Amino acid sequence: MTERTHANTADPDPTDLGTVARSIIDSNRYMTLATADEQGSPWASPVWYSPVEYREFLWVSSPEARHSRNLAVRPELAVVIFDSHEAGGWKALYMSAVAKQLPEPDVEDAIGIFSRHGEAQGLRAWMREDVDPPARHRLYRATVSEYFVLDPHDGRLPVRLA
């Protein structure tokens, strides 16, 4: 897993959907996870995120949180990152992903990335002991398979970030 520094762009060219998508990821701090339980009952949860190469997103949560319990039985989820201060247009990114609590061998590198991203935004440092048992939180990762933005008529436009 490698870390990438992202530059914020104020007004992306709407014809370059990759730039639009990266701008949305770079200029926001929270994403909303849309999960479902075994019976398919939906649940939405906002979480602070740390992007990794625009393909993965890290966050910390309690394994007892409803969205974490949902992911344990159904790892598929939808994610949206949006600026709630903007009305319409290109200010939302929709993603399909698979997420899970990170296994022990992956935690060391990922918690470093998560912590550096947070510290760059003025948040506290996170250490491995903050996400290893018996700590309250665990580290999670969503791996994105599809990205979309909406056109002016509320139609989905696929985006490639590779």
Set out the fold topology:
Blueprint: H1 17-27, E1 30-36, E2 42-48, E3 50-52, E4 56-61, H2 66-73, E5 76-82, E6 92-101, H3 104-120, E7 138-150, E8 156-159
Antiparallel strand pairs: 1-2, 1-5, 3-4, 4-7, 5-6, 6-7, 7-8
Explain this structure to me?
The protein is an alpha+beta fold. It has helices at about 15-25, 65-75, 105-120; strands at about 30-35, 40-50, 50, 55-60, 75-80, 90-100, 140-150, 155-160. Strands 1, 2, 3, 4, 5, 6, 7 and 8 form an 8-stranded antiparallel sheet that branches. The longest helix is centred in the C-terminal third of the chain and has 17 residues, at about 105-120. The chain is globular, with a radius of gyration of 16 Å.
Mean pLDDT: 89
Terminal CA distance reads: 15 Å
What gross morphology would you assign?
A: globular
Rg, Å, rounded: 16 Å
| Content-based structural category | alpha+beta
What string gives the helices and strands in order? HEEEEHEEHEE
Q: What is shown here, in short?
A:
The chain is of the alpha+beta class and 162 residues long. Helices cover 22% and strands 35% of the residues.
